[in-house]
Specification:
55% helix, 256 residues, binds glutathione, Glutaredoxin, glutathione transferase, alpha+beta, EC 2.5.1.18, Glutathione S-transferase Yfyf (Class Pi), Chain A, domain 2, single chain, 13 helices, glutathione binding, 2 domains, 8% strand
């Protein structure tokens, strides 16, 4: 995974939430090229040696979904409604659906289609095909749900929708993206999500990275990354830069 963190779906999930609430944040670089994620300092932040890790004053956490919910709760964002138990539970239902049903096939497809070539290995078409079949079964359920209400948890947008952004972004930009045409409500939902400013800001991370770190040389744009995917060696050579994945709140937010 060296050099892969700039494409991190887990980091993107958190960044979407930071952008949604308008938080000020500092992006701290974790240098994958020297395996900084395996150093004791980073293991102390994330015991699995993964990104992202997140710090709010002396509170340090990991796991992108938990980090995202922490941010949304702290800002009392409507994206994570907490006042009404049933509404809150519907958000949890669809977050669990994403984690347990949606992510398994889509993450396997994206791993094969996107990440394997970056690591110099060849995608396994059989794996992709098998997971596409599973993914279609999941999409059928989503289509039915989204024909009943505009968003997954109901007629209001929530973190349950936004959490789908990172993998879906990759998928929609892949050669299989046209699959969404067969699911009109799902397609409309995705286009609606994509039109949110947090996504264009986050596409992915560009604005803040450029602002926060003058050494940042790469604009992260998932579709661009995808289009630029070329024969393995060339891609491997390109993937050699640092990324900013340990996210730390600035003082202002700590006082919220
Ligand atoms: N469940 C974790 C997954 C984190 C994760 O898989 N991070 C990847 C990048 S997307 C990573 O750090 N990989 C490096 C490794 O596992 O060595 C989360 O959502 O935060």
């Amino acid at each position: 995974m060296d050099g892969m963190d700039e494409h991190s779906t887990a980091v993107a999930r958190v960044l979407v939430c930071l952008e949604e609430v308008g938080a000020e944040y500092e992006i701290v670089p974790i240098d994958f090229t020297v395996k900084e994620y395996q150093t004791p300092a980073h293991i102390a932040r994330n015991p699995f040696g993964q990104v992202p890790a997140f710090q709010d004053d002396d509170f340090v956490i990991f796991e992108s979904s938990a980090i995202s919910r922490y941010i949304l709760s702290k800002y009392k964002s409507n994206l994570l409604p907490e006042d009404d138990l049933r509404t809150a539970t519907m958000v949890n239902v669809w977050l669990d659906v994403e984690y347990g049903q949606y992510n398994t096939p889509i993450s396997t497809i994206i791993y094969d289609l996107v990440f394997k070539p970056m690591m110099g290995t060849v995608p396994d078409q059989q794996i992709v095909d098998a997971n596409l079949e599973n993914f279609k079964k999941v999409l059928k359920v989503y289509e039915a749900r989204l024909s009943q209400c505009k968003y997954l948890a109901g007629d209001f947008i929530s973190f349950a929708d936004l959490s789908h952004f990172p993998y879906t972004y990759y998928f929609a930009g892949s050669q299989y993206g046209s699959l969404f045409n067969s699911y009109p409500h799902l397609k409309a939902w995705w286009e609606d999500l994509m039109s949110r400013p947090s996504h264009s800001h986050t596409e992915v991370h560009k604005t803040h990275l450029e602002k926060c770190c003058s050494s940042w040389k790469f604009s992260i744009n998932f579709s661009k990354v995808y289009r630029q995917m070329k024969p393995n060696r060339e891609v491997r050579d390109r993937v050699k830069f640092r990324f900013h994945t340990s996210i730390k709140f600035l003082d202002k937010l700590s006082k919220v």
